[in-house]
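Hello forum,

I keep getting stuck at the same step: I have a sequence, I want structure tokens, and every attempt I make locally crashes halfway through. Rather than fight my setup again tonight, could one of you with a working pipeline run this one for me? It's a single chain of 124 residues.
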Amino acid sequence: MISMKKHLLLTQLALCAGFALASLSVQAADVQGSAKAGQGKVWLCVGCHAIPDYRADYPFVYKVPMIGGQNAAYIASALSAYKKGERKHPTMRAIAGSLSDQDMADIGEYYAAQTAATPPNPLK
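Reply #2:
Ran it on my machine without issues. Output:
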């Protein structure tokens, strides 16, 4: 049987953990991306995502999507999912694993700003 002191201590620990997790999610939600800052962070992306009709062959053959014009929040969310292992692709997981939440938001904003009307851009 758990003593009253142990029960109180466990309750306090659970509350502290809950507050810590809530703080982390608020911080992640507060991150504002910058397309200008993102321009200097997409150099790894262009090796695959800037090549029209590019097909990767590792770990299997598939068509690599062009991500210019994609929604910024979607790109940041996808990168976060790769980093956490929720999306499965070894190369993307390795790249996303090296990115901070700010990097992901900046990259998302950079690609969201790219449209068909954007002047030719080798980083698109």
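Residues 33-124 form a domain with the Cytochrome Bc1 Complex; Chain D, domain 2 fold (CATH 1.10.760.10). If your local run keeps crashing, start a new thread with the error log.
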